[in-house]
Amino acid sequence: MEKQPHKAIKLIDLKKHYGENQVLKGINLEIDYGQVVCIIGGSGSGKSTMLRCMNFLEQYDSGEVQINGKLLGYGSDAQGNLQLAPSHITQNDLSEVCMVFQQFNLWPHMNVLDNVMSPLLRVHKLGKQAAREKAIAVLEKVDMAHKIDAYPGQLSGGQQQRVAIARSLGTDPKIMLFDEPTSALDPELVGEVLKVMKSLANDGMTMVIVTHEMGFAAQVSDKVVFLAKGFIEEQGPPKILFTAPKSDNLKSFLSTWSERNSGIV
Amino acid sequence: MDLSLFITYWPILLKGLIYTLYVCSVGVIIALVGGLILHLISRLAVPFIDLLYTTYLTIFRGTPLLVQVYLMYYGGPFVGIELSAEQVGILGLGLYGSAYFAEIYRSGFASVPKGHIEAAYDLGYSRRQTLVSIQLPQMLGLIIPPGINQTIILIKESAILSIITVPELTTAAVTMSTQTFSVIEPYLFLAVAYWAITFLVAKIGQWCENRATVHLVRS
């Protein structure tokens, strides 16, 4: 991958609260283009909120989110004070960022092909033929081209998630965010989604993945970030982080996880 | 039963029937559009507008249609609003129905999962595009059954307009009854006619519902 002048994503002292509850207490994180970063942590640690701030599905309270060097969601007025940017500017800054959701969020009233084609027609203004070709190409990539006429309700969770990934891919994202993409799936369906994600990682996609799949995180990620109570407690290459955790929180998080898994095997 | 009465009265009854169809069609269209506008305005979440919205609903859902059209037709001239019986009839049905349809739209919008809208924004849809191609089509299947129900109620309520001399179906039957001193024939005819209209509306509604919910059919 060619060298980019800016970080794909840069978080500077990011803070966010819901009422009394301070969810993010000052997050600093840099993600390069081409990197695969997995975010792990217990529930309520702020993983999903952090991810949702990265594409402005949540407004953050203070600090900065930069996408490709540009401040996201805010601009400064004549006096230099930060103001909420108009939504079309924010959307433009986010045009290369796409999210894959835990609940897939395919549109149930459209079949598979229309789900993938619709953003291409409406947002990217492709012609019908071009949109169709592109949609089929990305569906082939996730091995779902044989189901173009099916409605989401007729598909398994794993199939729906693969279509959702294709829908994102169709818009040519540079950065893909995954919010617990396999957490809503039956165990036997997790593998097919992880396989698709692995192939994306091999293609050099910049990926930020909130996940509970430690094995997957260890295999594909360049960096693992451990979040606890709104802070990044530890981060580093998976080899080091998983084998030699420094903080007590991470140690207990990992041992809980391996206990649960060794019990099965 | 003296069916020969209908030989004399069928032109009046037919005219009444057509008039009812006309008044109801326009009234329901006003109610459908008015309800949507009311609902969209209420989504702006401005306190003053919320108050107006609630007041509108309280007035038009909280009082009988009979009272509303009576006030509009006979009370209107006292405050300088002079409308014909036909205008009051159509407007009355429209304003009354709008209040109910607004709430039907509200339940429809509320039923579209937030994630589907987030996905649209995430993929670059504008608010308008999200409304038109994600929210409206999804809620359509859900609001058709209560919408048809409400339409049927409005059609039956339109009989009330005979009170303010709108020359619709009920007025025609009442005319027939008073002129011939017959009761069974005109009112039985009236019952069958309203039933036939609402039956047809229900059938059309079912067809629309099936079309709007194709995606809910499981393989």
Written description of the protein model:
- The complex is a heterodimer of chains A (265) and B (219).
- With 265 residues, chain A is α/β, with parallel strands linked by helices.
- Chain A has helices at 47-54, 87-93, 112-122, 128-141, 157-170, 187-202, 214-220, 238-243, 248-264, and strands at residues 9-18, 21-31, 36-41, 62-67, 70-71, 74-76, 82-84, 97-100, 175-179, 206-210, 223-228, 231-236.
- Chain A has 9 helices and 12 strands.
- In chain A, β11 (223-228) and β12 (231-236) form a beta hairpin.
- The N and C termini of chain A lie far apart (39 Å).
- With 219 residues, chain B is mainly α.
- Chain B has helices spanning 5-42, 47-62, 65-75, 85-110, 114-122, 127-157, 169-180, 184-212.
- The A-B interface holds A 55, 57, 87-88, 91, 94-95, 98-99, 101, 103, 105-111, 118-119, 122-124, 150-154, 164, 167-168, 171 and B 113, 115-116, 118-127, 129, 133-134, 137-138, 141, 214-219.
Task: For the structure shown, list the relevant keywords.
heterodimer; A: alpha/beta; 6-stranded mixed β-sheet; B: 219 residues; mainly alpha; 79% helix; flat
Considering DSSP H and I runs of 4 or more, what fraction of the residues of chain A is helical?
25-40%
Helical segment count of chain A = 9
State the end-to-end distance of chain B.
54 Å
Q: What is the number of strand segments of chain B?
A: 0
Largest sheet of chain A: 6 strands, mixed
Number of DSSP-assigned strands of chain A: 12
Strand line-up across the major sheet of chain A: 8-9-10-3-11-12
Run of helices and strands of chain A: EEEHEEEEHEHHHEHEHEEHH
Calculate Rg of chain B over CA atoms. Answer: 21 Å
Q: In angstroms, what separates the terminal alpha carbons of chain A?
A: 39 Å
| Element order of chain B: H for helix, E for strand | HHHHHHHH
Largest interface: A-B, 32 and 25 residues
Describe what is shown at a glance.
With about 260 residues, chain A is α/β, with parallel strands linked by helices. Chain A is built from nine helices and twelve strands.
